[in-house]
Amino acid sequence: MKTLNTIALVALALGSAVGQDKVSPGKLMIELEAALPRSAPTPGQPIAFAHAIDWEAKTEKVGEILSRASGTKVEPHALYILGSCLYNSGEIEQAKATYEDLKTRFPKHPLCVTAKDQKGEKTLVDRGIEDCADELLFRSKYKVRMLPKPELDPDSTTTMHLTVGDVKIQFYKNAALEHRKNFLKLAKENYYDRLRVHRIIPGHLVQVGCPNTRVVDPTKWGRGGPGHVLKNEFSRVTHKRGTLTMWRGPGRPQSHGSQFQILLKDQPHLDFVQTPFAEIVEGVELVDNLSRQTRNQYEAPVNECFINGIATPKK
Amino acid sequence: MTSIALRAVCLLSCLILTAVPTLAQGDPDEGIGDRPAGQPTPGVRPGHAARLQPIQKPTDPNKVRGSYTVAGETKTLIEGDFYAAYLCLKPHEEKPNRPLQPQRILEHVLLFAEATSMGFALDDTEKDLVNPIKTNKQFESMLRKRLEQQGISEEQYVRYIAETRAIQRMKNWYANSVRVRSSEVYDLWKRDNFLYRVAYLDFSAADLIPKLKEKPPTPEQLEQFWSTNPQVQNKYRNPTSVTADLVIFDPTSVTEEEIARLKGSRKIERAEALEHFIANRDRLVKQIPSDKRPQLYPRKDKKVSIEKLVTPFMLLRSQIDREILVGDRISTAFKAAATTTNSADIEALAKTNKLQHIRLKKASRQEVATEHAKLGPTLFTDLFNATPGALGTEVRFFGPLQFFWRLEDKSVSSLPPFDDVADKITDDWYEFEAYHRSQASAKAFLEKVDAKVREQTKERETALDAQAVIDGENEIRSSGTKDERQKEAIRQKHRTLADHGKRKLRSEIMPEHFDSVVAAEGLKLKEVGPFSFSFAQRNRTEISDPTKRAEAFLTSSYQIKALGPGFVSPILSDIVSRTHYIAKVLTKQEPPFESMSTVDYHQRKMAAERQAMFTSNYMWTLFQVQRRLGWKDK
Predict the structure, then answer these.
(1) CB of A102 within 8 A of CB of A125?
(2) Structural domain contains residue B128
(3) Measured between CB atoms, which of A109, A219, A290 is closest to B370?
């Protein structure tokens, strides 16, 4: 179905633009720029990795722009971006057809003539065609499986009562299910009740869930666990602001059983390193504010903050 | 002023700040070179002064600065155009005391030329769409006025926006050209997931200990062990410590009755409290109790009337009052402490002023850090750096607490005399001796293999050495070098190459001799695998089965990972299990693609993508763009 939609979009884009409202090419180009799946990373800005991008939505958007850009200077650019979107969403044949069409219809366009790839050997379009051909060949030999797109489960809304206020979290429908089960089980057993927040990094993260934090001995905070570890459950969920991710100690291959971090900044470098299992849907600013309190030498807030309880969802 | 008007002012100031970023002050034509000669630019390191010179207006604008080739067409850059580009960038990018450098201007010119050749330059419609003067009619006059004040023409302003946008567009297109192939992902994954089968010998220290215990060490052996072994010395070393008195005041601990009594005698006005709050704002705001903080952030869904809205000052008011009312208590004690001479006096002083007294008696760094964490992370260091007998220089604040100290004594870490530790170190001696004897056994085994290998390779190794001498002399002759140091460097290069050849030769022959020595010594090889390389397990001490412990160590050994099939490893020492291993790689196979999990696929894809993005970003440095466009200086 998805493939059909894509083909229809491409066909629409490549066909004539009869009956379409005329939009200025300049405006279309600006629209296309805004619809780009990623922009060149700048210092301090994290990279947008492919697994975290909704390629299907991007393909649809770029296809829609392309359908209006027929016969304008924007058309080859939109075709090129559409090729990249199709490639990354797994529609390799479509992507190859798009690049080839671009090359056939606009043989003198800079993207087909002057714009060379990173190695300076081929043009961007030729490189696109080659990448697609290589990928098709590989996929004819091997079956490449992709992880599903993560979705939040609105029925799983849970309230975490912190000293700083209540935050609402939601779990994923199709990712980190064992982590979700484990978290809710511990919450039901009142495991998390009266645990201190034992690590804060201003504007970055807040860490909690160590059972040793029930006792006032900061040297032992961060070292306790529930007595079991969990297998990592990596998914396409990216570590963004508001994500709850199960902590994984340095050098340890498995997820810690109970300590988790609440991220306050996008940190994609943690993707496929730690297991994100839930997201804050309400109250992230309270946690942000908590992270900015005075810390002691153990990185714990001087003004103690507790989890007062976790209200598990009815379902 | 109404809230709408306030919002409009905020929006306007934001817009101006965004639209005219970092505009430098003054006439753009003037430069900042009108400082008297010989005086360094303020804020610039003296060594950099020569490099950071402002760009001067060219005397001959038609002089060619250099040439480059873009889209097959060779173009020249003249000084006039270069200076025009400088004027375009200067108001936006030049910082005070840091003049814009020619490299940055050249980078901009070349990148823009490249972007234009790829069709990324903005046309007139696009320029209008990205020009805030045209898109925000409401603030047009204000923006124009601001540009006029900064001495920037609208044309220059639009040129800057359009050119930087075109360059950014090109970079973005390349960022969107990053495609990772599955074959690359597979290659990356393969490297970490070869399947190994390994045969190994283990030399365990634990096996030797019972034998060693049959003959305990003599006192002389123990004394020598104590005097020469830094690890054992560190284990029994007396730690660095301090003896001091701490006097602490916690304003929150003052009873309500006392506060009420003090309030009765003195009324604190709002202005006085506010002054105290402003003077101590940073310290105080961080002390707002966690349970009161949510009041500062009312939720959208929970309507709060304006009367119930609170500010940090309002939340802290009672604490501020307390601090003012009882604040002089610790300062009085601090002043009086200057005359005290011993711990008892300090204690009495604390009691008189209703302050807490803590006596640190030979407290180590660890003890201070754990038990007195509320007084800040640097307490031990500060105490240790103080002069014994002296009072701290001031009353300190950490969190809500105020405190001062007097250091009585401090002692640096020292070694106890041998007699004090003689009884304790016997077990250490057994452990140490067993570890080294087992290592020596492993070494002796490898030497036997080596001896056999050398016996066989002796002639070929001699030939390699002789060839290295000949090759070295030939190269010296052909290069015509006369310098003795250079000659020696050439000879050394060939000696190194010969050594490499010898090592390779030995490695190739070693496996067969390894097997023969194992058979001759009557040792038994154990096998592990097939396995793929994994993370080191930290809990190896908890594994009681020696075979499983060995497997846990060997499957995470980087040295084995680097070996080819048939190769023999050097001695691999596992400090955790105190065992030494010598391993031989029996097989090393490529893993099938089907065994790669979906997560592994995505993980490696992300690694490949990160690398590709880095390369894509690296394209835009001046060096790279000069190389691409064949820049030639005139």
Answers:
(1) yes
(2) no
(3) A219
Task: Please indicate, yes or no, whether residues B470 and B582 belong to a single structural domain of this protein.
Answer: yes
Alpha carbon distance B440, B346 (integer Å) = 60
Residues 399-418 of B with CB under 8 A from A: 399
Pairwise CB contact (< 8 Å): B181 & A50: no
**Does B313 reside within a domain?**
yes
Q: Which tens digit of pLDDT belongs to each residue from A264-299?
A: 999 998 999 999 999 999 999 999 989 988 888 788
Q: How far is A174 from chain B (nearest CA, A)?
A: 14
Whether residues B314 and B458 fall in one domain: no
pLDDT value at residue A276:
95
Q: For residue B232, is it within any domain?
A: yes
Asked if A91 has any chain B CB less than 8 Å from its own CB, the reply is no
Residue ranges of domains in chain A, CATH in brackets: 2-141 (1.25.40), 154-311 (2.40.100.10)
**Burial degree of B229 (CB within 10 A; 0-12, 13-18, 19+):** middle
- Closest-CA distance, A303 to chain B, in angstroms, reads 6
Inspect the interface and report whether the beta carbons of B179 and A138 lie closer than 8 Å.
no
Chain B residues lying within 8 Å of A141, measured CB to CB: 593
- Which SS3 state, helix, strand or coil, does residue A153 take? coil
- Of B393, B411, B429, the one marking the end of a domain is B411
CB contact under 8 A, A147 and B602: yes
Say whether residue A49 is in contact with chain B using an 8 A CB cutoff: yes
Q: What angle do CA B505, B509, B510 make, to 5 degrees?
A: 110
B450 & B519 share domain? yes
How far A130 CA sits from the closest chain B CA (Å)? Answer: 10
d(C-alpha B162, C-alpha B166), whole Å = 6
Is residue B405 in a domain? yes
pLDDT digits (tens, 9 = 90+) for B171-199: 999 999 999 999 999 999 998 889 999 99
Instruction: Let me know whether B203 and B276 are in one domain.
Output: no
pLDDT, one tens digit per residue, over B313-340 is: 998 888 888 888 877 788 888 888 888 8
CA distances from A123 to A98, A103, B174, B458, B459 (A): 15, 10, 12, 56, 55
How many structural domains compose chain B? 2
Residue A98 with chain B: CB contacts under 8 Å: none
Interface of B with A in 156-215 (CB under 8 A): 168-169, 171-177, 179-183, 186
Q: Quick check: B243 and B431 in contact, CB under 8 A?
A: no
Claim to verify: residue B299 and residue B428 sit in the same structural domain: no
pLDDT range class, residue B43, cuts 50, 70, 90: very low
Tell whether B521 and B435 lie within a shared domain. Answer: yes
User: Is the Cβ of A139 closer than 8 Å to some Cβ of chain B?
Assistant: yes
Find out whether A87 and B179 touch, Cβ atoms under 8 Å. yes
Residues of B in contact with A76 (CB under 8 A): 119
> Which residues in B lie closer than 8 A to residue A235 (C-beta atoms)?
599
CB contact under 8 A, A289 and B297: yes
Residue ranges of B 540-599 with Cβ closer than 8 A to chain A:
593-594, 598-599
Of B411, B441, B461, which marks where a domain is finished?
B411
Is A45 near chain B, with CB under 8 Å?
no
Say whether both B330 and B447 belong to one domain: no
**Contact with chain B for residue A19, Cβ under 8 A:** no
**ω before B54 within 30° of 0 (cis)?**
no
Please identify among residues 242-271 of chain A the ones whose CB lies closer than 8 Å to any CB of chain B. 251-253, 271
Q: Is the ipTM of this complex over 0.95?
A: no
Tokens describing residue B555: 């499957």
Residue B151 gets the label, from left (phi > 0), alpha (psi -120 to 50) or beta, of left
The continuous run of DSSP H or E covering A166 comes out as strand A165-171
Does residue B346 sit in the same domain as residue B440?
no
| Structural domain boundaries enclosing B363 | 241-411
